[in-house]
Design goal:
The protein has about 425 residues and is an all-alpha fold. It contains 17 helices and two strands. Strands 1-2 form a two-stranded antiparallel sheet. A hairpin with a 2-residue loop joins strand 1 and strand 2. Helix 1 (about 10-30) packs antiparallel against helix 4 (about 60-80), helix 4 (about 60-80) crosses helix 9 (about 190-205) and helix 5 (about 85-115) runs parallel beside helix 14 (about 295-315).
């Protein structure tokens, strides 16, 4: 397997592990129960609040953003060497993100239409689609981070950690306004400030400015101490994903706790980078890493849709396999089987659809202007965010789901990201 010697394989490894952790974590916290002919959806974190510590392990989105920062820095450096302009760089990055997303959304739009005209109620459709489309929130904000990456990387190269702390300070001030001044609407802006700060750590990693393993372990310990203070002495909830209190969450909207958690996790993971890179120089683990990365967005985007489809089939089969009371000893003992079955169902989907995310644009395809690309990307982000929040079938406003889907398609069209036929010779 030919891989350039200068490639940091640990970046790809962390990306793969992060996505698998997210997938497994989502499948684990879903506490479904079939009893007396009725289907009872549930959440493990609500049923058993003492399991919330698991979210400190499975909430690895900060790692994915840090890895994204490293990868974007490498990509931008390469583009500069080749003389590729902003539009040429951005179209390539957006294509990798948006192409697999379009497949999922087209599939759900078709399924939603079929279910609607088959008499399925709006609440059922909303529950199924929202559960399935939860993962797309990540693409809504990460696409914005990518659009801004050239500017934020310039800021990092010019001001270093001062640019990182600028994002942190804004994020802290937003949280202060959220809690102390009851300006909860302002909290939504932390989708930008918190994740930009986390993404900046990837730049620091790329430049080798994170320090020695001893310093990194110190960062990790300090991160855990600050996180404990914010939670036990401050107003933040314990769970790093969701929350039993619907009115307060570390993720909706994001809080500065996610950055602190990311520092704690990343300090530990980066401290073992040297031995992990030696381990990844072998063929077996690296081959698995490459395989997962080749279909990583498909695995991430489709894992909850696969679960919803499987649960629907089991429900129609009389609740087969869903009759174990959530959080009971028997339930815990059967979780490995549950997760194993879901991976067995997801893998064929990933193999079938994975090539779509590796699809490249035709070499002779025109590159839209930077203004068109940015405008189209923002439309995609808006449509994706609305679909992640409300799903299909039961939006707070009439036809909002249809309008959201149209925004995504329109944005992809403006950006030149819709599939096109390859030109053939005359």
């Amino acid at each position: 397997m030919k891989t350039p010697d200068e490639r940091n394989r640990y970046v790809d490894f962390l990306r793969a592990v992060s996505i698998l952790m997210v997938v497994t974590g989502h499948w684990l916290i879903v506490a479904l129960y079939y009893k007396d002919g009725a289907f009872i959806p549930g959440d493990l974190l609500e049923l058993r609040p003492n399991t919330q510590w698991l979210t400190w392990v499975f909430q690895v989105m900060p790692i994915f953003f840090i890895v994204g920062g490293y990868a974007n820095a490498v990509s931008l450096e390469s583009a500069r060497r080749r003389g590729t302009d902003y539009a040429g760089w951005l179209i390539t990055r957006l294509n990798r993100l948006v192409s697999p997303l379009l497949v999922l959304l087209f599939a759900w739009a078709l399924l939603a239409a079929v279910l609607h005209f088959s008499g399925v109620t709006g609440d059922v459709l909303r529950l199924a689609s929202r559960a399935s489309l939860i993962p797309i929130w990540f693409l809504a904000i990460y696409t914005v981070v990518v659009v801004l990456a050239p500017a934020t990387y310039i800021a990092w190269q010019r001001w270093g950690f001062a640019s990182f702390w600028a994002f942190v300070i804004v994020g802290v001030l937003v949280d202060v306004a959220f809690f102390a001044a009851d300006q909860q609407w302002l909290g939504w802006s932390n989708y930008l400030w918190v994740w930009l700060a986390v993404h900046h750590l990837g730049y620091a990693w790329r430049d080798g400015r994170m320090g020695s393993p001893t310093r990194l372990l110190t960062y990790s310990a300090l991160g855990l101490m600050v996180l404990a203070l914010l939670i036990f002495k401050g107003p933040y909830p314990f769970a790093m994903v969701g929350s039993p209190d619907e009115a307060l969450s570390n993720t909706l909207p994001p809080k500065i706790t996610l950055l602190v958690l990311g520092i704690a996790q990343f300090g530990l993971l980066l401290a073992i980078e040297a031995p992990m890179r030696r381990l990844l120089s072998g063929l077996r683990i690296w081959a698995v890493t490459v395989l997962i990365n080749s279909m990583i967005m498909t695995l991430y985007l489709w894992h909850l849709t696969v679960m919803v489809i499987l649960v629907s089939i089991l429900y129609l089969a009389g609740g087969f396999g869903l009759g174990v009371e959530p959080a009971s000893l028997e339930w815990w003992l059967t979780r490995p089987v549950w997760i194993g079955v879901l991976y067995a169902c997801l893998l064929p989907v990933a193999i079938a659809l994975g090539p779509l995310e590796r699809r490249t644009r035709p070499a002779d395809a025109a590159v839209p202007s930077a203004a068109r690309l940015v405008a189209g990307a923002l439309l995609v982000c808006l449509g994706v965010a609305l679909l992640a929040l409300f799903g299909f079938g039961s939006s707070p406003l009439p036809f909002l789901d249809i309008a959201s889907f149209v925004l995504v398609v329109l944005g992809a069209g403006i950006s030149g990201l819709l599939p096109t036929r390859k030109k053939t010779a005359a």
